[in-house]
Specification:
Radius of gyration: 21 Å
Distance between the termini: 59 Å
Number of strands: 16
Structural class: alpha/beta
Order of helices and strands: HEHEEEEEHHHEEEEEEEEEE
Helix content: 10-25%
Shape: globular
CATH topology of the largest domain: Rossmann fold
Strand order of the largest sheet: 11-13-9-7-15
Number of helices: 5
Oligomer: single chain
């Protein structure tokens, strides 16, 4: 690979190597999957000038995820325009994509690429999270002991890879469940709201879920344990809501979706948060704090009915979060927010 220039073949070769590393001077037939990395930090992109199309690297990236390798990827430095997360592998759903903050603040660096992802027609929210990315001390290739000060999403990405490593070290029960790992980091992040670039709250197309917080991620869900206690379940439950913004007096529907049709009913727990109050500003149908996905089905819904009190209160939010429970695992998309606007 030339300095600063790559090719799709080289990138794919690297990702294949990660799946089953082999000795220096060896070949893939000597690959050993037990030596695969847990996490990779990827401060690079493959633009069209290097030969990459929308799907060129997709299978390779999805292969990393299937193998349990957390692939943390820089969003890119093409901001401040919207829909600039546009070079593979930054915009893939299987990548954990990182935007750059002005270090020491919760403001986005002007160069940090923004979503939504339009290059593949998905309109996917990216980045996933944000981390410090300006004026960062970094190793330099000018000599074996040189350092430099650099800025870019390339600086934010290793902060996030390090957070994953710290979480797995302190909470080994998360490893290698990438969905649960990302959900924990996302939910414990310092949420930074934005309505720019077609965003509607959290997550959004500037900051994703917000600024990563390693300590909060480790402390979320109780005291760390040194003993792995994974209890794998075949079913993962994700959460969505539609619409994400309503006026007082209108309704929204939260949908709990299982990863496959359930053979027997499962009861999924949830919790509500936000500055809107259940019972005062809105009502939810069904049983309090739980919903049942019936046997033979793959989803269930909870309807929110907002109250029209005709009082100017400003925008209120009702955030639902899936809680751990028996017979299922919490999916990657485990939180959804409805914004309730004052009656017109």
């Amino acid at each position: 690979m030339d300095d600063g220039n790559g090719t799709p073949a080289r990138y794919i070769e690297c990702m294949d190597f990660f799946l089953a590393p082999y000795p220096v001077g060896g070949d893939p037939s000597q690959g050993d999957p037990t030596k695969a990395p847990d996490i990779t930090t990827n401060s690079w992109g493959c633009p069209t000038s290097e030969g990459c199309g929308v799907t060129t690297l997709q299978s390779a990236v999805e292969g990393q995820r299937a193998a349990g390798i957390e692939m943390v990827v820089a969003a890119g430095n093409s901001g401040p325009s919207c829909s600039t997360v546009s070079d593979p592998p930054s915009f893939y759903d299987a990548s954990y994509t990182v935007g750059a903050l002005n270090t020491g603040t919760d403001t986005l660096a002007s160069f940090s690429s923004r979503g939504p992802v339009t290059v593949d027609g998905s309109n996917r929210i990216k980045p996933d999270v944000a981390a410090p990315g300006t004026n960062t001390r970094s190793a330099s290739n000018t000599s074996d002991n040189a350092y430099t000060i650099a800025s870019g999403t390339s600086m934010a990405t290793p902060h996030t890879a390090g957070t994953v490593a710290l979480l797995w070290s302190a909470r080994p029960e998360f490893k290698p469940d990438l969905d649960a790992t990302e959900a924990d980091i996302n939910n414990s992040a310092v949420h930074i709201n934005s309505t720019a670039c077609s965003s509607t709250g959290i997550p959004n197309n500037l900051f994703g879920w917000g600024r990563i917080d390693a300590l909060a991620a480790v402390q979320a869900g109780g005291t760390p344990t040194p003993t792995p206690t994974p209890t794998p379940a075949a079913i993962k439950v994700n959460l969505s809501v539609s619409p994400t913004q309503i006026n007082e007096g209108q309704t929204a529907t939260y949908t709990f979706t299982a990863s496959s049709t359930v053979s027997q009913s499962i009861t999924v727990g949830y919790a509500m948060s936000g500055n809107a109050s259940n019972g005062t500003d809105y009502k939810l149908n069904g049983t309090v704090n739980q919903v049942t996905i019936p046997a033979g089905q793959s989803s269930a819904t909870v309807m929110l009915k907002s109250k029209a009190d005709h009082v100017t209160e400003g925008t209120e939010t009702a955030t639902m979060t899936v809680q751990p429970g028996s017979g299922y695992k919490v999916g990657r998309n485990n939180q959804a927010t409805v914004s309730i606007l004052d009656s017109p």
